[in-house]
Amino acid sequence: MTTVDVPHSSRSVVLTVSGVVEETADARSLVFAVPDELRSRFEYKPGQFLTLRIPSDRTGSVARCYSLASSPFGDGDPKVTVKRTVDGYGSNWLCDNVKVGDTIELLPPSGVFTPKTLDHDFLLWGAGSGITPVISILKSALSQGSGRVVLIYANRDESSVIFRDELRDLAAQYPTRLTVVHWLESLQGLPTPDQFATLAAPFTSFESFMCGPGPFMDTVHKALAEAGVPRNQVHAEVFNSLAGDPFQDAAPVEVTEEEAADAATVSVTLDGETHELSWPRKQTLVDIMLAKGLDVPYSCQEGECGSCACTVLQGKVEMENSEILDPEDIAAGYILGCQAKPLTDRLEIEF
């Protein structure tokens, strides 16, 4: 049995695995029991993820992000789904070792791959385990929204289809609102942008959300552009392995008198409240917010997960790593709080 008793940071918690579901030969779901006193911390939006701390003989631990495949509306305890990847230490360890009753340390839900409203019509794209955040959005939109949902789901073959029975049941339950299109490489080969553009053509007014391997996402992006879908209707989830340790509390920010004198001023709106902060030029936005005891959303602090994405309403920043943001996102004012440092004297930012 794998047990963790004490969390390694003030932000992380230890939860018990209440269920293990073997989804396919190389994918399984882990369900976590959330005690009443932690319910508020584990409220989540469709499409968000959990960050798990996985033991490692070599490094002590590794941190991995896994999307919530459950819906916050009626699915009960949160569930993540893990698919083995070749040479993937985290996924293979979770698939080989975790049993019901084990405990795992994790960070509360995070991520920005989530619809602003569930009343849209949705064109959803998933490939392999990329179905996990997508099915959370799909189930939530069907139960809480009023629009149509079209899912295009690519896999190697029929045996690779995660949530096959659940998707079939949902299609039967919502026959006029849900359409599921399976793309199997064993039958149809790898999809091309032209083929996906043909599938997307009737749904160019729908909001598109996609998750899957890089080549799949590239194909979908090209297909949607070819079909004429506006860029602001296209949303992609991107996961990268984390090099750092998000389970360590951030070190205190040390600021010299000279840095304090030259600091910018920022007005930050978080959870409806506005805070006026001094922002030294060498510190990131997440650093200064943590130093003030604010519950800023963040996970990796490496610019790789998007948890700390926010919007600049006034002023300018520089960022070391912003690859997870599309040029269109940056043009619209989106920044990563863990990477942003001030360029102007006065800024206004909203989470």
Automatic annotation (TrEMBL):
It comes from the Bacteria. Its cofactor is FAD. Residues 264-351 form the 2Fe-2S ferredoxin-type domain. Residues 10-116 form the FAD-binding FR-type domain. Keywords: 2Fe-2S, FAD, Flavoprotein, Iron, Iron-sulfur, Metal-binding, Oxidoreductase. The keyword Cell membrane does not apply. This is 2Fe-2S iron-sulfur cluster-binding protein.
